[in-house]
Amino acid sequence: MVEDRITDGRRIAELLSSEIDGREDGELEYFAVTNADRDVEPTADGARAYDIAHDDRDERIARAFVHEDRAHIEFAAAQDVAADAASDLELRVRPKATTPPRTLVFVESGAEVKRATDVLQRVSRAVREADQSL
């Protein structure tokens, strides 16, 4: 039996979106997919597919991008937490040298979507703790 592995970037981003919008357990209840580009076409550098907003902040904390063979999440909030969580969960991660800086977490298969949502949950906890300490 051949095991199918989802490695289409657009499909991976769709699965991630479904997890974010469809699950209300843990920290995922605080997230929403916003500004979705339903006609997005994958590119080598990654094309923006949608934003990921956090209800407590009512602002974008990340954006999802699609490539031909993977997706990536670009974190604008809690970048260090995202990097540590992704590394712990064995997802490929790298910093993006922009102003302000960003952290990129790569989701290279459908099987990695659950781990990517675990990264989002850790980021959510960090965001909510930071907001509560203000």
Automatic annotation (TrEMBL):
Pfam families: DUF7993
Record domain DUF7993: where: 1-130
Protein's recorded name: DUF7993 domain-containing protein
Annotated source species: Natrinema salifodinae
